[in-house]
Each structure stands twice: as structure tokens, then as C-alpha cells.
Amino acid sequence: MDLGLRGKAAVVSGSTAGIGLAIATALAAEGAKVVVNGRTEARVAAALDKIRQRVASAELRGVAANLGTANGVDAFLKQVAEADVLVNNLGIYEAKPFAEIPDADWMRLSR
Hints:
It is a single chain. This protein is an alpha/beta fold. The chain has one domain: Rossmann fold (3-Layer(aba) Sandwich), CATH 3.40.50.720. Helices cover 39% and strands 17% of the residues. It has four helices and four strands; from the N terminus they run βαβαβαβα. It has helices spanning 18-29, 41-54, 70-79, 103-109; strands at residues 9-12, 33-38, 59-64, 85-87. Strands 3-2-1-4 form a four-stranded parallel β-sheet, covered by helices on one side. The N and C termini lie far apart (37 Å). The mean pLDDT is 92.
């Protein structure tokens, strides 16, 4: 399938495992230049290796930064100033019905 992503810069947050890694791999297979993100250098390096095993032609860059903190976001933005595609694969939640989530919880979970 050709999604028209060849040469586009794509950032996938939380992409060292699971769904984030699968998304980063799929974007690389489509020809996007993918930025892989995780909290540690070791996890990012391992994810880059996994993607390269599946997509030999992958154009990848790894950025270790905890995007759950202001300092981590600042560090990330110093290395990656812009992107054509952003997949935000980060976040925390509580498994409860939408109508039962008070405003205080929304504020706590959105930090």
C-alpha cells in the first residue's frame, strides 16, 4: 500500500514497544523518515534494531526523552523541531466510563 509518506518526517512517541513500535515500523515500511522515541537510550536503540530487521531500507532516528515531563519535552524539541506526521502514543488513563471522570482526574491525567 502506498500512503504517500515517502520522505515525510514522522514522529512516534512511546515507540520502543507494543503499538508504538508497530506504528513506527509501518511508517518506516511506507518510506517515512521515522523518529523513534522512548525514555532510555537502551530501549530506543533496541527498537531501532527491531525496525531495521523488518525494514532494511528504514530511515530512522532515535531520541531518548521522557515526554511525560517538561524537561523531557524541551530536550526532545531541541533534537526534533518539526515533523510532517505526529503519532502521540503516550498517555495514562483510568478505565472508567467517560461520564464518571471528574474534572480533577482530567487535569491530573493530562499533565
